[in-house]
Amino acid sequence: WAAVAALGSLVISAMVAVFTHSILFVQIGGAIAAALIILRFFVAGLKKPLPHRAQNNHQHTIWWRWSRVVQHHPWRALTVSVVGLGLLAMPMFSLRLGFSDMGNAPEDTSVRKAYDLISEGFGPGFNGPLYIAVGGETAADPQAMQQFAQVIAKTDGVAAAFPAPMPSKEVGLVIAYPKTSPQDEATSDLVHNLRSDIIPATNVYAKVGGFTASGIDFSDYLSKRLPWLIGSVLIVSFFLLMAVFRSILVPLKAVLMNLLSVGAAYGVIVAVFQWGWMADVFGVGKPGPVEAWAPMFLFAIVFGLSMDYEVFLLSRMKEEYNRTGDNFTAVADGVAATARVITAAALIMVCVFAAFVLAPDRQLKLFGMGMAVAVFLDATVVRMLLVPATMELLGDRNWWIPKWLDRVLPKIDVEGSHHTPTHPIP
Length: 426
Prior knowledge:
CATH superfamily of the largest domain: Multidrug efflux transporter AcrB transmembrane domain
Number of strands: 6
Strand content: 5-15%
Distance between the termini: 27 Å
Shape: elongated
CATH architecture of the largest domain: Up-down Bundle
């Protein structure tokens, strides 16, 4: 009891200190923790261990009964889960990557007010100008630079463009102001149009740069490589799970269900941050594109956590199935044996990530909301509905694998049953 109370006091004091910006609470928590640890040597009641429940008596738990209910109505559970996750994931198909700027800050902040004043006074494009670096003979000829700037200014989507004075004649600079904001999709189209059509037609050696163009380039780069990342992770995970569980359907279901929870998280962040649904509730500010780095980070972290829960749950089911040969009982016992741990771990993660939503920074909000939604859905809808429903529907076919494939795959024993020690461990 003393150890648990000491750890609790440290955690609580640290969290209070973060929100109050005072080290005094950490000192108080440390003093309480130290006092509890010292008192346990003198007070008998503090030495009493926490009550321990038997680990094998799962058939009287609510999780075992819940699994039975799902297994008796597998099609209903499967339909509700897939439809619900599918609806949440639908906004994902309109995902647009980009970067936030001061225009996404809350309306009461000074940076947002300055951003809006510039947009109202000069136009939205003045918050994200395009810098066109010019080289060659054109850079040394002021008249040629002026003609090049006029061509840029006449381009659809450009509000104004003019050459900027430069100390060197070897490099010229034309500043172009789009008619649309830096986050507008039309601005991305303008950058691509300048690079592919307008500038090559002038026979001038010029490159489009600046923060706005760099953000567009980075977003395009990640957009092209995100499918490769997702595909490679899914393939590697499938073969690893196949080797662990000696099955084809179990790893296939695992990667598909984990993909559903990730897709639902993508859909939620698109709806809130890109479409602006409930933006005022979460303090998101003006809607805009999803941060370019977010989908890749979210997928990598969420898929790792989801697969961790999946292996933990399926290994328990596999152990029970090998022991009893009864798929129905193995599924119920597996859910009941792991549900408390998975739920507790997921609850901790959800609370941690949900705290990020309270931060004023938009990027932290996006990351925290995406992670919290994904972990919550994975631990509830996927683990408590989809997994037992699909395992029940497929029955013994869950654990089927061709004999030739079983011989080829490496033997991976996650439970360590093949390495029982031959002598007592000191």
